[in-house]
Design brief:
The complex is a heterodimer of chains A (210) and B (183). By secondary structure, chain A is mainly α. Chain A is built from eleven helices and no strands. The longest helix of chain A is centred in the middle third of the chain and has 26 residues. Helices cover 80% and strands 0% of the residues of chain B. Classes of the chains: A mainly alpha (210), B mainly alpha (183). Chains A and B meet through helix 1, helix 3 and helix 4 of A and helix 2, helix 3, helix 6 and helix 9 of B.
């Protein structure tokens, strides 16, 4: 018997939960091992001691009042059963569900929205070196191709002083390109998103471009 | 194994019958209180924890799958909440010794027999408190609750053989502590 097994059996021996043959075996081991006998004495002394300790006091009627006090705590409004649905929640259930669905759709749309495609005009200007842009602007001082385009361009580009020149330049460059899907330069420029225009203008709106 | 009557009470509660929950409380309030009290010692704290045990049961009964018996389940909650409280108290004890001083001075006025008994109880409580968590749980469930080893094994998720060894060491450590304190 290993040490753990002896300890297991010793507890069973003290508690009287052991078959007769094992009881005899344990008693034989106890005779041979003073250490084991000391352990047994110590354990039996503890159980004797435990039997003489007073049980701790409980206030009178404590157990009688336990359930009413517990129920009071449960019903105080702070603790609800898992099935409880508050009144206010019931009133707002439909709007809340609708809002949640709308929010979910918005989040999904944002997550799966395809990347914005850059229009050809943006790509073209963005790929140009500043020197190239400068040279184009310098080479074409008077550049207005049609009043319609200028008006539209001004609307698009706001108050930036050189908007006409820049936009006209774009228009000219685009005329050189074979952009067959566009009916007019106006249409092509209009295709640029606000963000694209801002990015182009950020790049072009430098002192040395003027 | 699960008591069919208790399973029915749990099902009834899960179907919205609050009386079924009351029945479970009435059935286990004393057992839960005493397992907590023997770990915590102070009545007010034990009362608070016992209430919390039943509140936790109230909130979680829906998740009770019936894999173990209800008392195994609720004892586990009681032991865990008590151990949390013990840990919290140990932390606070580092910063305050007022409580201990008060206990000693208030016991000065008691008759000698009561004092001896109180002192014995205090020593045993101190010895139990010093046990490692596992041995403490095993000792309380076995000695005070008189639970069969098989049930304790279910509560503590351990083997019966291991439990007996733990119980042996717990009792031995209590004995050694008492011996050392009296020498």
């Amino acid at each position: 018997m290993n040490e753990n097994k002896v300890h297991e059996r010793l507890i069973d021996y003290i508690e009287g939960n052991i078959p007769h043959e094992e009881k005899v075996e344990i008693e034989s081991l106890l005779k041979k091992s003073p250490q084991m006998q000391n352990e047994l004495d110590l354990i039996q002394a503890v159980f004797t001691e435990l039997r003489h300790t007073s049980d701790e006091n409980v206030p009178t009627h404590y157990f009688t009042n336990f359930l009413p006090r517990l129920r009071e705590r449960l019903e105080s409004g702070k603790i609800h059963s898992p099935f409880f649905i508050p009144e206010w929640y019931r009133l707002f259930t439909t709007p809340l569900v609708v809002s949640a669905i709308v929010l979910l759709i918005a989040i999904m749309y944002q997550s799966f929205k395809p990347e914005e495609l850059y229009s050809p005009i943006y790509s073209m200007v963005n790929n140009m070196e500043r020197a190239e842009i400068n040279s184009i602007v310098d080479d074409t001082p008077d550049f207005i191709s049609s009043p319609g385009i200028i008006r539209n361009t001004e609307n698009l580009l706001g108050d930036i002083s050189n908007a006409n020149v820049i936009e006209s330049k774009f228009t000219e460059e685009l005329l050189v390109l074979d952009v067959s899907s566009y009916q007019s330069e106006h249409e092509l420029i209009s295709d640029m998103g606000d963000k694209e225009i801002e990015q182009v203008l950020d790049r072009l709106d430098k002192p040395n471009v003027q | 194994m699960n008591n069919p009557d208790e399973l029915k009470l749990i099902q009834d509660f899960n179907n919205g019958n609050e009386q079924a929950y009351n029945q479970l409380v009435l059935r286990y309030k004393e057992k839960v209180y005493w397992i907590v009290r023997r770990m915590i010692h102070d009545h007010d704290d034990a009362d608070d924890i016992t209430q919390n045990v039943f509140i936790k049961a109230y909130q979680s009964l829906r998740s009770f799958k019936g894999d173990s018996s209800f008392y195994t389940w609720i004892y586990r909650i009681a032991i865990n909440l008590s151990l949390n409280e013990i840990r919290r108290k140990k932390f606070h004890k580092i910063f305050s010794i007022d409580e201990e001083i008060h206990q000693i001075s208030s016991s000065d006025e008691l008759p000698i027999e009561v004092m001896v008994r109180e002192e014995r109880s205090r020593l045993i409580a101190a010895a139990i408190e010093r046990l490692p968590d596992k041995q403490k749980k095993v000792f309380l469930l076995r000695y005070y609750e008189e639970l069969p080893y098989e049930d304790i094994a279910k509560i503590l998720h351990t083997s019966v053989g291991g439990l007996k060894a733990n119980y042996f060491h717990a009792v031995k450590k209590i004995g050694e502590y008492l011996k050392n304190e009296r020498e």
